Amino acid sequence: MKMKFHSMQSKMFLYNILIIILIMIATSLSFYFTLSSSIKQEIGLKSLQIAKTTANRPDIISAFYTEDPSKILQPIAEQIRIETESEYVVIGDKNGIRYAHPVEEQIGQSMVGGDNDDALKRGLSYTSEATGSLGPAIRGKSPIFGYDGAIIGVVSVGYLKTDIFTMFLKYLDNIILIAIFGVLIGVICSILLSSHIKRELLNYEPIEIAELLKQQNVLIESVREAIIMINHKGIITVANSAAYKVLSIDEEKSIIDMPIQKVIPNSPMLEVLATGEKHLDRLMVIAGKKTVVNRIPIWNGNKIIGVVSSFRLQSEIDRLAMELSQVKKYTEALRAQTHEYNNFLYSISGLIQLQNYDEALELINSERAEQGSLIHFIAERLNDPFISGIIIGFFNRAKELKVKLILDEDSNLERLPKSLSKHLFVSILGNLITNAFEAVEELEEKNRVVRILISDNGKEIIIEVEDSGKGLDNKIKDLIFERRVSTKTSSKDRHGYGLLKVNENVKDLGGIIYTENGDLGGALFVVVIHKGE
After folding, report:
1. Per-residue pLDDT for 491 more than 50?
2. Residue 88 to residue 80: CA distance in whole angstroms
3. Within 13 A of 401's CA, how many CA atoms are on the CB side?
4. pLDDT tier at 532 (50, 70, 90 boundaries)?
5. Is 332 exposed, middle or buried (0-12, 13-18, 19+ CB in 10 A)?
6. 161, 393, 403, 448: which one has the fewest Cβ atoms less than 10 Å from its Cβ?
7. Residues 122, 128, 129: CA angle, nearest 5 degrees
């Protein structure tokens, strides 16, 4: 039955066992060849030593000078063979004719193997591997010198290769036991290793980790905030497209594997790495741009292994805040209009219940005429429906606040060009009118006056917002667009921030803003925005 290993742990275990088995086989074969070579070498030296000793024996030399050398040499050779446990001890004359041989029938025949020349002709002692009459063998050869120093014969001592293999088999059991023991140790180590790696990977499979990495990359790229992550050495490991955009770096010039201090020299991420303290909504200038930054340490148990930082341009956050602020203003205007119409309906209802029908009809006609006149005037002067709607909303808000809101009769506006961001234009107008309402709210009702002028001369759009309040203190007149400054302590945060944003939005539209003392006695804000080509 074929087993299927699906989990990383089982695959790792199988691969480790396979590798260990292959290593043990290779080791065993290497041991076999090494041991075999050593045994052959020792056998060769042993056979050579026996051959030399035999060739130098006086009784062997003297036997060559008798009438029947074989009669003397055969018993001596057999005795040596038995004592040394060699396969054979053969003694031959200078022509290679056997005088002694384990098989007596072969005495008197020529020695075979063809390896006697170096001994008989050159007088050398050596070992050789050759096939004799008894089979392949390792043989030691030594010449026999006569009394006159001449070569008179040769001694050949041999060990069959089959006997050498039998000797090796004696060690085979030990080799097998060592191999089995090595495999068992490998199995245990493989189990421990695969289990440890599985725990280190939080019990995830590699395919699951790959999927998580793909999902993480998609998630990081889908986030509009810039994200940068560093490891415990302060090296950048992750950076999304938004980060490259904020840093004004081409994505082709990767910042991965670069030190964070080289990319963002003033980054406190290394401080978070050292202290583990979170940094939330911190203001910071990155690549010359104002940003809002969050920095969170990455923990592995009790150890910090990295820091992730997310940051976004403050201008984007401010824009979203202003859009939300405008939505709130529109909602407030609609609420004021609803409230005003409810009061109007209550008045009509009361007059009808009192059967004062003429007064009710007169009130309806008066309201219709007033509202119609206002809408007609605004629609005639301001041809952009979006701006017209906002101004009507502020008129309803002014009625609720008991403020006299005047749209200057010299106002005229065509549709806003597409090159101008409408939300910035609305933000400027809304903040200035709201500030004007706040500037007169503490005055007596009859003195609460706000005037608006929106003029389009073809090249420029001019906005004037004037109130009848106390005006601007000369001490702060030059600072109101630089920081959060207000002449009203009760609305310091809101009022000051609005003027700061007005200035930023005007600059974004390529315009200018300045203040004067108005004819109504309060502040006059003048905004000039170039329409462009």
Report:
1. no
2. 9
3. 25
4. low
5. middle
6. 161
7. 145
